[in-house]
Amino acid sequence: MLRQQSNSPYSYPTQKGGVGKTTTAVTLAHGLAIQGKDTLLLDLDPQGQCASALGLVQEPGVFNLLVGDQTLANVTRTTGRSRLTLIPGNKRTATAQLVLNAEGFELSIIRDALRPAMRNGLDLVIIDTAPSVGGLQEAALFAADLVIIPTAVDYLATEGVIKVMQTLEILAEKQSWRGSVLGILPTFYDNVTRESQQTLDDLQRTFGAELILPPVHRATILRECGAEGKTIWEKAASSRPAQEYADLVWRVTDVTP
Hints:
By secondary structure, the chain is α/β, with parallel strands linked by helices.
């Protein structure tokens, strides 16, 4: 996510798929828009599911912006939601990464591409990253003021988060990244299973309880939202997952102007 005063985004990285990353990015972006923040959602995942989750058509917006030399305005789409816009992606995002890796690119490519939007008064940019490293994810992290790390509470959770934290440490040491981690967000939490509680305990021991955000419980309704092209705020604003994501929205608004 980009903040207007500092011209930089929030990023939602993980090195493991199926952790609720896109659901978190879409839900947070719309929640911030509802709170009055002019918010842009940037989909860097080649699956292009941000558009689908909002009931929109996938497009090669990221490819056209980073490789096709189209302007930010040309690739930005309205979403039908007040204050929320989208730069969509699709499978050509993976092609963009291959081209950029082959030709070489500056780590600041995403930050630089988004600067016009920040100069024009945009409040925040939420970046949904791919589930693996390979250039664009690192560029997204480098652009970020704050990073939120969603992780499913399963036996691979801690390992995946460690890899992301190691990437951030390298960016800080070698590339002068000055962002920080807002928190680690446990997703698909089930308080009746031993694995969920053990994994949550392990995350708290490994990274410190203060860095672990309140978990988002496993909920069928979140899958239904994606299938219907609606956010949880549109489908079930009083549901438990909506209340849990509302906590995340308020935590973000607390640290943004």
